[in-house]
Amino acid sequence: MARKPRIEYAGAVYHVLNRGNYRGDLFETAGAAEAFVSCLGEACERMGWRVHGYCLMRNHYHLALETPRGNLVSGVHWLQSTFGNRFNRYRGERGRAFQGRYQAILVEPGVHLARLVDYLHLNPVRARIVALEQLAQFRWSSYRAFTRGAGERPAWLVCAEWLRAHGELTDTPAGWRSYAEHLAWLMADEGRQKDAAFDRMSRGWALGSEEWQRGVAKDFQAMDQAADWGGEEVAELNRVHWRERLERGAAEIGASLLGAAAESKSAPWKIALAAWLKRGSSVPNRWISEHLHMGPPDAVSRYVGEVTRGEASRAEAGVILEQLTTKVRG
């Protein structure tokens, strides 16, 4: 039986989670956990994601993830496959890092998102990995990054929306002290955690009010005949984004897209543009190869890998890539 397509749309928020293959350890070392957070940051840059919270446990991960471009499937595929490849290289192994299909539970913004973030932040405390008083020292949770202040966290890690849902808290030292008190209040009584639906955070298809769930279900029943539940509209939005980004980058370096077919498939400016496009979007190699006339898609992958690794043969492309990264935003 075919798997049911994922529900995807621009601006959707999810609780995404997955476990190690055969429930094996994914993050038994600091290096493995750090590698996953690094991959998550790269995925956010490529896909335009916003992360409202995360937590890595020994054999699984949790994300409170927002997809402004409606690209959950391509993004999580990239995140898990990239981490899996690095994980296997590090351990000298082969095979899947994750147990199978990840869970992606839709989340209603506002109070329900705030409760999910609470659940993620309290996971290591509830599992007795760390005491509540030491939670800010737990390295593999967004709580540590948040409480250290805006200057100590990546741009893709956001908190304004769910802090407001906790009684108009703000991203300030005083706001984080109040949030710490809120977490302590939750941990003081298991009944409060039940009221916050902690026991349902990893089950079902959606976390939200009945009215909101009915609205989402009705919307997607109408899209049942689409290529996927994200629909062709989301795919078209992605293509528009890729084209706009390509044109901005080409203009910055003075390259002619109209003349691309007449130039070498491995021209430095083409390689630089390809690498820059992939850093900031979910654009596939085939689309790049067609628009920049770079040969087969696997050639694009090879060229991008060479300039990303800083190989001497791609030094000129590396200079152009640095120019693009520095001067062109978005």
Summarize it.
The chain has helices at 30-47, 72-91, 111-126, 142-147, 160-165, 173-187, 190-195, 210-221, 231-253, 268-279, 285-292, 297-308, 315-327; strands spanning 12-19, 50-56, 60-67, 103-107, 206-207. It has 330 residues and is α+β, with helices and mostly antiparallel strands.
Record the SSE blueprint.
Elements: E1 12-19, H1 30-47, E2 50-56, E3 60-67, H2 72-91, E4 103-107, H3 111-126, H4 142-147, H5 160-165, H6 173-187, H7 190-195, E5 206-207, H8 210-221, H9 231-253, H10 268-279, H11 285-292, H12 297-308, H13 315-327
Describe the structure.
- The protein is an alpha+beta fold and 330 residues long.
- The chain contains 13 helices and 5 strands.
- A 5-stranded mixed β-sheet has the order 2-3-1-4-5, with helices on both faces.
- Helix 9 (231-253) packs across helix 10 (268-279), helix 10 (268-279) crosses helix 13 and helix 11 (285-292) crosses helix 12 (297-308).
- It is elongated.
